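Quick one: sequence plus magnesium ion SMILES, need C-alpha cells.
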Amino acid sequence: MISITNLEKTYGDRTLFADVSAQLNAGQRYGLVGANGSGKTTLLNILTGNLDASAGKVSLPRRLRLGVLRQDQFLYEDQKILHVALMGHQELWQVMVDKEKLLANAENHFDADRFSELEDLVQRYDGYSAEAGAAMILEGLGLPAEIHYEPLSTLSGGFKLRVLLAQVLAGDPDALLLDEPTNHLDILSIRWLETFLRDFVGPVVVISHDHRFLDNVCTDILDVDYQTVTEYSGNYTEFMLAKQRERDRREKEIAKREMEIAHHQKFVDRFRAKASKARQAQSKVRMIEKKADELVELPASSRRYSTFKFAQKRDSGREVLKLKGITKAFDDNEVLHGVDLVLQRGDRMAIMGPNGIGKSTLLKIIMGDLAADEGEVEWGYETHPGYFAQDHKEQFERPHRTAEAWIWDTCPEQSIGFVRGHMAMMLFSGDDVEKRLESLSGGEAARLVFSKLAIARPNVLVLDEPTNHLDLESIEALVEGLKSFPGTLIIVSHD
Ligand SMILES: Nc1ncnc2c1ncn2[C@@H]1O[C@H](COP(=O)(O)OP(=O)(O)OP(=O)(O)O)[C@@H](O)[C@H]1O
Ligand SMILES: [Mg+2]
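Reply:
Sure thing.
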C-alpha cells in the first residue's frame, strides 16, 4: 500500500538512514523503534511528504487519506475542542473556515454566489454528519458533549492528546502514522488505543518507546539503527531476540575472521626476514589484505547511555514542603479539593492517577506557576526546587539558538568546558552542541532540559512525566540518576 524504495536521509555529513526499502501493507501494524535522535520522526515526516528525502522515494496510492499524529502536540491551544477534531477532515474544514469568514463580513459585503458554492461543498463532503461524527468520536474518547466548545487549552495533557487522536480519526483515514501517541496517556487510554489500532483495517505505523504497548499492538517492527531501517516480523519482544541473535552472529563471524588474520600475520612476521620463505610470505600478505577487506566493520549502534547526575548545592532544611488545604477549580470543575501534605528532606513522592485528575495542576501550584483558589504552599528553609514541566519545550523561546547557547545562558559565569562537559553527559557531543533548538528530536530536547536542571544543582526535584520521549537507555540512566540523588523528589509518572 505504501512503498519505500532506497530511501536515504542525511544532514550534513551525518547519515540518519540509507538503503531503506519496505512495503507497508493493510492489516499490518508496524512499530517504528530506535534510540532518541535516530530518525524516527524524520522518517515519518518523509512518509507524509512534509520533509524531502536525500535520495530514494516513497509512493502512496493517489487517493490515500493519511491520518497523522505528530510528536509536537499542543498547537491548537485557542481553538475549540470540536473544531480541532473537525480539522482532521482538511478539505471540509477549509470550506467551513471560508464560510465562517464570508458570514462574518456579511454586513459590508455578501457574496451570494460564493456562499452557495461553499454550501454545495459542505453538502458534498457530508459536512453536517461529519460534525456529528467528530462529536461522537470525542465522546468515545471520554470527552463529553458539554465541553466540545471549550478551548483546547482548558484540557490536561492527556486529554489534549485524545482530542488530537480524535482529529486523526475524524478524517476517516486509510492509513495511520502516529508519533509517540502514548506519551501523556494514562493506562486506561493506552488500553483503549491498543484495541482501536488492532481493529483498524489499513496499515498503521506507530512510534513508541513503550514496550508493552508495542507488544500488544505490533505485527512487525521497523528498527532505525546502524544507519538504516531493518524490518522484523513479530512483536517487540520477538524483535529484540532476533536483533540480538543477528548481532551476535555477525560479531562471531567478525571475531573468527580477525583470528584468521592474526594467525597469518604471525607467519608473515616470522618469515619475512628469511629469504627462503619470502615468496610464501608474500602470498600470505595478499591473503591477509583480501580478508581484511572482507571484514566489514559493524556500524556503531545509535543506542547509547546518557549519564544523569543530580548533585545538590547544599542540603535543604528538614521540612521541605507543606501544603495546606489546596483547592483549585477550572470553572465549575473542581480538580483539587483540600490537598494537605508535608514533605520531609529525602522523601520521594510519586503522584499517580488518571488523565485530567489534576497532577500537573498540583505541580504548577507548588512551583508558583499557577495560583490556587484556596490554601497555602510553604517551602521550607534553604529549599531550591528544580522543575521539569510536562510541556518543557515551551522553555525554548528562541528556537533558532543553539543548544549550547541555551545552556550557557543559564550559567554564564562557567567556562565552555563546563558547559560541554555537562552536555556530553547527556550525549550532546561534537557538532551536536551546535544543533538549533528547533531541530532537536523529542528525546534530545528532554535531555537538554535535564542538563539545565542538573547544572542548577537543586535540592528538590519536581518532575512531571519525565520519561515521556526518552528511549529505554535514557530511562534506565534517569532511574540511576534519581536513585543516587540525595535530595527530595516529587514525581508524576504513568510508568
Ligand atoms: N534541520 C536539521 N539539521 C540538522 N539535524 C537535524 C535537523 N532536523 C533534525 N535533525 C537531527 O536528526 C536526528 C533525528 O531526529 P528525529 O526527530 O527524527 O529523531 P527521533 O528518532 O524521532 O528521536 P526521538 O525518539 O527523540 O523523538 C536528530 O539528531 C535531530 O537533531
Ligand atoms: Mg521523534
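The radius of gyration is 28 Å. Residues 236-271 form the longest helix (36 residues).
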